Amino acid sequence: IFQLRFSSVLFASQKAEVAGSQSLSLMMKPSSVKPAKEVAQVYSNLAAYPVPQSAQLLPQYPFSDAIRTRCVYQVQDLASQKNRTLVKTAVVLPTGDLVDSDPVLRDPTTLWDVYCSGGDHRAVLLKLKAEGSGSDNADKFVVHVYNESRFIKSIDLSEKAKHGAVYGPELGACQWSCNEGHLLYVAEKKQPKNASYFAADAFSEESAGKPGEAKSVGKQYDSVEHFGEQLSEYKRPVLCTLDVDSEVVTVLDDGIPTACCQRNLAGLLTTLAYGECAVIGHDTRAVSSPRFSPCQTQLVWLQNEPSGPHKQCRRLIWCDWATKDIRFIIDFVNQAGSAGFPGIYADSLPSRCWSSNCRTVVLSSINRSKDCLLAIDVKTKIGELLPLPPDASSAKVLDFHRDWLVVEASAPNVPPFIAAGFIDASKPLTSNIKWTCLTDCFKLNDIAWRVKQHTAKLAHPEFGNQLFESILVWPVGSSKKKDSKKGDEEKPAAITELPLPLIAFPHGGPNTSFTATYMRYVCGLARCGYAVLVINYRGSLGFGKSTVDSLLGGIGERDVSDCIQAVEETLAESASSADNSALPRLDGEKLAAFGGSHGGFLGGHLIGQRPGMFKAAVLRNPVINLATMVGGSDIPDWVYEQSGLPFSHDRLLDAETLALLWSKSPLSHASKVNTPTLVAVGLKDLRVPPQQGRELYRALRARNVPTRLLVCPDDCHPMSSVPVQSSVFVDIVLWFNRHVMGVTEEA
């Protein structure tokens, strides 16, 4: 009788479970937590989406109006743990139809691949790795030259022995001259051959190396300044030209300076025919990316104040080249309010940014929490926001030529794709672009997002209660497959009923922004069951110059206050709008902190200033102790400027300065931390030395706070290698699963 009754009860409970399986599966917490194998699969699926690297409008076919674009993009090959670069050519026919080639793997030795403006010639510069080791086995640099239909010649730059290694896109440039007879590029200045004091020919007049080769005795261990994080191989740049016909290499000027955009730097115009340089702008400002109009009579460039925030609001400057008349086209914007134009926030102008009528300049700029396309009339000084491709919330200019605009576009739930559109200058710019997708456009139907504006509660003494924003990304149920191509039928997604854990994710910088673009880690966390709040606290770009400046001297206070406010207001809104289908239900008892660099700095402050608020934290290459970072970072000025202190290279730390830096450091709150914390560092990080993360790890471990340290020996500040990106993502999710959701791997 017992067995029968037990069986009937079990059967009844099974029927109830089947009938309510949808709601029960949402309410049972373990079912929403993915084990390591599934987390790895989530990452694998997202890594399969290609990431655009560049796009270039190619010369048109003779007697054809078709538009050709070469698209270069990258995918992660997780099997070989390497990035693969693919190239394809997309052709937009006059009818608007798209014809594209199959993607092919780009030769990994390709350093530059450039067409001349007329399209008659193409140069491919290859970096061929040297065999063996030692100073005598340097990489070779070879230029292959093509015309429209065939290979013409190969030129070995290394044999010319005029310079060292050719610079890549990280810092260099490679461009054809207007007459298509020369290539201009940047290379390392040729240095004397180092010799030991004990070499056989150390003190002889002639070197045992190549005839006429200079040598330097006893200086092989001398330290040489370089360009810092991710640019340490670049030390002494020189401009060089290659005469393609005669194959003569000329070093233009050993004295041409190069610097970052935060230093006093005037632009320099070099005339190849005479080897002369003309100064552009003023050397008390920071000038970058000068761009001539197609008619060669106008010049524009970006300019900002030297020092201060490492990225900031910029001016667009215009120059009549004949008269040298210089004017501000777009000036700084101090306060933008909730909807006004905030100013220009761009690292550089596109290489080709002018319309064919030499009147309009097109560029990318951050506008609050979105990347926008900005068209500026240099005559009227009026700028307009251009419409974005469908499904995109942000876009960046890749090329603009013959009034065709090519952009990279995406949204938090749309992986990046390349699109092209024609701008008809005779019509209003804001309504006349018809976009054609050149690469596949997918939509992640199981992910939703929204942007929220906040008014800072902690007022600035000069600028008051400024605005900042956050972007909430969360998982949703969907009645269709997770990923769909553009054009597939889309049904409304249902909000997930389970109260979601929330991860606070402030960006690094601090003078940058999280824009409404695709972020692989954020989408991965959402697909693993977490809502993610990315926070553009004060100091972020795109809100006005005063918002950027307002964080100087306020790190560890105003930015921390903004992060806590964004979390609390998001939780409150979620709780008060339980019946609002536009927002997810969030669990205020299951919060986590996540960030890297200055975002890791903020994560350290959040768990220190609000002990118990966050159940877990993950900090990647975090700034932990400003007092020790100032002597080890490649940007010591960052520490002073962000702390509100004047910087000069001859300044020495004193007791008062050390006390101030310590008071602003997350480590000063370590004794209050009880949050389980995962720390990840790259041993080759020159920006935030890995000792920073180790300091926090040791402090927490000594206080019996659950902690783990990931050490990545071959990675630098971004920690962007394929092995590290993929593996660390799984570690992050498992850490949150254990300490936020209370579920270990075995569960």
Note down, in words, how this protein is organized.
The chain is of the alpha+beta class. Among the domains are: 88 residues, no CATH class; 273 residues, Rossmann fold (3-Layer(aba) Sandwich). The protein contains 13 helices and 40 strands. The strands form ten sheets. Strands 31, 32, 34, 35, 36, 37, 38, 39 and 40 form a nine-stranded mixed sheet that branches. Strands 1, 2, 3, 4 and 5 form a five-stranded antiparallel sheet that branches. The two termini are 35 Å apart.
Shape: globular
Radius of gyration: 28 Å
Which assembly state applies to the chains in this document?
A: single chain
Approximate strand percentage: 25-35%
List keywords for this structure.
747 residues; alpha+beta; Rossmann fold; 13 helices; 18% helix; 33% strand
How would you briefly describe this protein structure?
This protein is α+β, with helices and mostly antiparallel strands and 747 residues long. 18% of the residues lie in helices and 33% in strands. Among the domains are: 254-341, no CATH class; 447-477 and 494-647 and 654-741, Alpha/Beta hydrolase fold, catalytic domain (Rossmann fold), CATH 3.40.50.
Q: Which helices and strands appear, and what pairs or packs with what?
A:
Layout: H1 2-19, H2 21-27, H3 36-47, E1 51-58, E2 67-77, E3 82-92, E4 98-100, E5 104-105, E6 110-115, E7 122-128, E8 140-146, E9 151-156, H4 157-160, E10 163-166, E11 174-176, E12 182-189, E13 193-195, E14 215-217, E15 237-243, E16 248-253, E17 267-271, E18 276-280, E19 286-292, E20 298-304, E21 315-320, E22 325-330, E23 360-367, E24 370-377, E25 382-385, E26 394-401, E27 404-411, E28 414-422, E29 435-437, E30 442-444, E31 447-455, E32 467-477, E33 483-485, E34 494-495, E35 500-506, H5 520-527, E36 531-536, H6 545-549, H7 558-576, E37 586-596, H8 598-609, E38 616-620, H9 626-629, H10 636-642, H11 655-663, E39 677-682, H12 691-702, E40 707-712, H13 722-739
Parallel strand pairs: 13-14, 35-36, 35-37, 37-38, 38-39, 39-40
Antiparallel strand pairs: 1-2, 2-3, 3-4, 3-5, 6-7, 7-8, 8-9, 10-12, 11-12, 12-15, 15-16, 17-18, 19-20, 20-21, 21-22, 23-24, 24-25, 26-27, 27-28, 28-29, 30-33, 31-32, 32-34, 32-36
